[in-house]
Amino acid sequence: MEIRKSTAADKSEIETVHIQAFGEQEGPEIAKLVNDLFEDETASPLLSLVAVRNGRIVGHVLCTNASITQTDESLSVQLLAPLAVLPEAQNQGIGTRLVREGLSQLSGSGVALVFVLGHPEYYPRFGFSTAGIIGFEAPYPIAEKNTDAWMVVELKQGIIGKVKGKVQCAEALNQPQYWHE
Ligand SMILES: CC(C)(COP(=O)(O)OP(=O)(O)OC[C@H]1O[C@@H](n2cnc3c(N)ncnc32)[C@H](O)[C@@H]1OP(=O)(O)O)[C@@H](O)C(=O)NCCC(=O)NCCS
What we know:
The protein is an alpha+beta fold. The protein is built from two helices and nine strands, in the order E-H-E-E-E-H-E-E-E-E-E. The chain binds coenzyme A. Coenzyme A binds near residues 82, 83, 84, 95 and 121.
């Protein structure tokens, strides 16, 4: 299996991955979000990686530009969303490879913090931990029962504890419907 940056030619296969992974109800909305983020200037710089097996895209992860308001520190921050693997390819380590490669490339380009709103059982394996209790507010309030789904990982040592504030995401993602877990 190969992990590589996506190209414009991958657009419809990427849509299929999200529609199938997130299901009929949520999938089309997530696929549209991905396309909107590709077009959104405020999402740039972004990192879009696909997992390709036997010539077919089986997984996709998107990371887009974000920032932290109320801080003087100029930090490079990204938001990881969404991540999806085709149902028949799940639980084979593909999501893990996409996240690890994504974090490695972001680290190489100087990104300091990566945020995610996701499954609290999944992301800690990559170093993510709860972001709210260490002073990072999500773009929209997260329901109390889901506070552990809002997570952050530090790619540059020494940021957590020094910086706090509200995370501002790309415009396409800055809609309340994307901020429930
Ligand atoms: C979540 C997802 C991206 C994981 O990708 P994957 O390739 O199946 O995951 P991997 O094979 O790398 O890792 C498997 C691990 O993920 C866990 N996992 C899979 N789906 C999960 C979920 N919905 N919640 C929590 N953990 C999950 C598995 O239990 C397994 O855990 P283990 O290693 O402790 O046994 C994939 O299942 C998916 O696309 N799900 C539907 C879309 C979705 O929910 N995306 C949002 C992610 S926040």
